[in-house]
Amino acid sequence: SPDSTIKKRRHLQPNYFQSLLKIAFFWVIVPKSFPLLLNAIDADSSEDFKHIPGLNYLTDGNEVVSNPVCFESNLDSFGNVDYHALRLADYHDVGYGYSGQAVLHDNLRSALIIATRGCPYRCRFCSAPLISGRKIRAHSPRYIAETIKRLYADFSVRVISLGDDNFTLKRDYVSELCRCISDLQLDDLILTSPNGFRLTTLSPDLAKKMRRAGWEEVAIAPESGSPRTLKLMQKDMDLDSIDPFVRMCHAAGLKVKANFIIGFPGETMDDILQTERFIKINDFDQIGLCFFQPLPGTPIFEELVANGTIDISFLPGRYNQLTYCPDSIEKNELCKTFNRIKNEFRDKKGWQYKNANVGTIRM
After folding, report:
1. Average pLDDT for residues 44-62, to the nearest whole number?
2. Which domains are assigned to the chain?
3. What is the pTM of this model?
């Protein structure tokens, strides 16, 4: 049973709790409520955890209790990030970097900022709605601009990556943020958005504003070049809109990274070859190629557990690790295809690389 001394901690997703609590954990945090949870524990160390939002725990009777999750609408209310306490300078000293892939600045210090949270979309493989909810919530543009200013002055950060899942969903917000960042007059500041935009949310005018504010790279997430696979994923994507989007970004001076997943449940080798062809015919500046990972709590994870394909205790791997393979594809063939797609893209760009076998098998 839980007690006032915190025994074990782990970030997990809904519907993943009960089995793990009964196997190995006294309690589990829902990530959405993590700051509130820490505040609550600091304020009250009693054994009554009912008041802690987002906490899942076992009672003395071995019953799983799931407290309601609380989403904070005013993200600014959490206050400023203490980068000194996080020892950001020490991370920089050992080579930390997060600056996107289409724009590489290895000699510049970088940092990640998340301005908005929430995802209203229905992709079956993605945990974003579970982690941060479906409603879009945002820090104020002024808060983000001031955070950038502090990172620039106190830590010599020159590359800022906005790691939002749906950064451009509210165009007026992004437009105002661009104005606030431009007002800082940090001429050598570089901005990237490496996590993926919805194509319909970025206009030519907004792309130009972002470029003037310092953006060099944006990312999109087609995920697949196969309409059949997109339907399996419940990824609402019009593949015909990709080329015009890339052209629009290039016209504004922005580089484009495109993210893809291969090995999704039900996918065939023909579907993957369609993705390979799609990558070849589009003018992407960089690609992010990933093996499908069953992420705990996502609809596809729950389906794979329910039909006995994976166990409830399954742990996903890195995105270059093959941890799951569709029945119709042989795992060595899938891994070989992953590396071929990756290497042919790098060859096309004339890039030098040491590791020709980025994809590995963990099965």
Report:
1. 67
2. 17-66 (no CATH), 75-361 (3.80.30.20)
3. 0.85
